[in-house]
Amino acid sequence: MRFAKGAGFLVLALALTLILDMSLGPIPAILPLLNPGQGVWTEAGQAVSPTSGSLALPGLISPVEVTYTAGGVPHIFAKNDHDLFMVQGYLVARDRLFEMDLMRRQASGSLAAILGPSYVAADKAELSLGLVVGARRTLAVMEQSAAGKSALADMSAYAQGVNALIRQDEAAGNLPVYFKLVGYQPTPWTAFDSLLVQEDLEQVLALSTGPLDVSILASHIGTQKALQLVPVLPPNPQFPYDPGPYPPTSPAPLPADVVTAAQATAAGAASGLIAQAKPLLPGIAQGFEMSNNWAVSGSLTASGKPLLAGDPHLSLTLPSIWYEMQLVDPNYHVEGVNFPGAPGIVIGHNQAAAWSATDTENQAAFDYIEKTSAAHPGRYEFNGRWLPFTVRHYTIAVKGRPSVSYSVDWTNNGPILDQYGVRIAMRWTGDYASQDLVALLAMDRATNLPEFEQALSVWSCPVQNWVFADTHGDIALMAPGFYPLVSHGNPELLLDGSGPDQWTGRIPANAQPRIVNPAWGFVWSANQRVVGATYPYDIGQSDDFANGYRADTIHAFLSNPANRPFTVASMERLQSDNQDHLALLLAPYIAAAGARLGLTGSAARAVERVGSWNGTMDTGSVSATIYWYFLGAYLQATFGPWWQADKVPVATDPNLAISPENTPLVEDLQVFTESGESPWFNNPVTGETRTAADVMDTALAKALGQIERAYGHNPARWAWGRVHTRTFNSLAGLAVLSRGPYATGGDINTPDAASPTTPTSTSGPSWRMVVDLSNLADSVGVYPGGQSENPLSAHYADGLPIWLGYRNRPLVDLPAPSAQHLTFQP
């Protein structure tokens, strides 16, 4: 009784705190929340879901057994695919129903219906992108093939399990607390909703506004200067995982540096677009979604069998984007993580193979200026004809307000993303039908490399670098998918929508990036450009890809004989590596600048120590803080005068900002620094001619001043952990349910990646995994959160301290249910 009272008061206190902290729309009625039978009081019971015993689940064909292991990870044992995926849907919904509902609502543009008028703009943005249109196209294609129909059957079984959970919770008055706080009930789940979740993830990983950003930059500093700063090929040395040789092409693609007359005109007009094309884009454009993965051959491991490691870098939220589980039936025996809302396992292993993914970051979005005329209202020009816009009409429901009517014009290039005089259409690969869920389910069953590659043959978007290893000893890295080709016009800039700059096809499958069992014994990717300079197709420019410094550190570790033979422990050590390769390169220059400035006292000694520093961004490192502040000041001192002279609109366009997270500018600065001279070091505002040393001296003096103002004059108080923290935000937007900030190492360039780097990082390794193909029982993994979205559950954030401590949990592969298990009966 004392426990029940305590739990009741805890729930009541939590509910009141949530109400006071609520920022998701109108505050719901309070009395229904406090109803002892159906209010948030019932969350105390829901916090401990049954993990043993027997439950009836209408719709099952046969009994299904579930064993829970550490961390609340379910292992499902079924006799057929329908039951396997039905129970998967039920269990994931039991832990993540609100998260699933938010994802489908975001993709379908229906957040305002539950969260109020402040989300109308977000709904308009999603409807403009056409994620619902893309999901419908995918559904139509899946219905036309046997593999597609089979996947739809699995998705329907998954939905059947979700809906069983919803009906059960509604009957018991036990819906998750978030639904009660916001004041609505979830609608039934469908197979189409799983496709919306897929579209939402495509948006996160494939969509960017790079051509628009480069065109805006070109309109201010000139096209040639813009393309010099944001080239197709990175200016600094990098390690592509597929170095060639490559197959010849016919006809030869357009040279990357060609700018057509129409594009030059468009670039000149782009300065007027920033206030017009941007309102619908913030929050959609590609952000910090990166990753690491690698596999090493058995010739380099202690066991003689391959090791595979992966850590996708995404937003760090509570609950996590991932859900861990094992699926077993006559067709599947797979363990790993999946995205709540869709069946199967995305990253993990079965009994013969393992795989993980990083974002390839090829150009997937292309921006077109469409030609319109007052003489032809409601039309756009294409190939000399005036064609009518396809207009898609939507009604946006708004909580507490009248519905809002909204229409989106489409051309044959895609949706129009502004409603002003100069109209820009975005054509991106997410608009097109995809069979990614068909591919994922086939990957889960693949037992060797040919089967894995066959599964990926229908993968489309987002293009991923899939690392693979199996018990036969094969290792591979490949990036199959949809790579659009443009035969006219430079896709780095705004394209002419009137006809000549259309997509002309795709990069053929046999020419897409791939490497299998290389002689050097390992494969790796870290979002670097995946192919070399002689690759015959244009897959994107330097602002699409990561800068290669994480890849450099990983390559250095794997190629060093001193680190061999590799073990699970050494793979874990590499995943937690905080060395910034760029810091290692710049450290001697920073120390030299300090000597030239004639620094004295403790600051002089601190800067002098940077010269022998190994570039590791550990929490206790003072050198890390000096380097990061210096890098920011160095970038500003170099490019800031040019932005000022040419009025580049950095204040309103963060993609054009000068910061250590601007990939092409950082790569440019590395090359300029190593050469010692560049016209970009000159100051066009004052007319001053400067060398790299001049600018570095100015930057270091400014950086030290910034550090001293923020942290005092004693370098002992300049540790990186004081500057750099991580926060894990509640997906519901509730600060009381968030965790952090925690002092943490790393930055955007380290294998243990973190971004934005200062003052608070909210992105990074969302799932760490190492699979030992010699003994799956030695495999490990963890994500920074917990299985449950319920803040009263013991599994709300129990993985967080393990993750923060750079430790892992065993990636348990059960061959059969344990003695104590939960049984679902038909």
Description:
The protein has an eleven-stranded mixed β-sheet with strand order 1-32-2-3-7-8-9-10-18-19-23, covered by helices on one side. The protein has a domain of 142 residues: Aminohydrolase, alpha-helical knob region (Penicillin amidase (Acylase) alpha subunit, N-terminal domain), CATH 1.10.1400. Helix 15 runs antiparallel to helix 16, helix 19 packs across helix 23 and helix 21 packs across helix 23. The chain contains 25 helices and 32 strands. The protein is an alpha+beta fold and 826 residues long.
The share of residues in extended strands comes to: 15-25%
Amino-to-carboxy terminus distance: 35 Å
Q: Give the CATH level 1 class of the domain at 582-723.
A: Mainly Alpha
Radius of gyration from CA coordinates: 27 Å
Structural class: alpha+beta
Report on the biggest sheet: 11 strands, mixed
Regions with little confidence, pLDDT below 50 for 5+ residues: 1-45, 251-257, 267-287
Number of strands: 32
CATH superfamily of the domain at 582-723: Aminohydrolase, alpha-helical knob region
Number of helices: 25
Q: Name the shape in a single word.
A: globular
Give the overall average pLDDT: 88
**In which order are the strands of the major sheet placed?**
1-32-2-3-7-8-9-10-18-19-23
Proportion in helices = 25-40%
Task: Give the CATH topology of the domain at 582-723.
Answer: Penicillin amidase (Acylase) alpha subunit, N-terminal domain
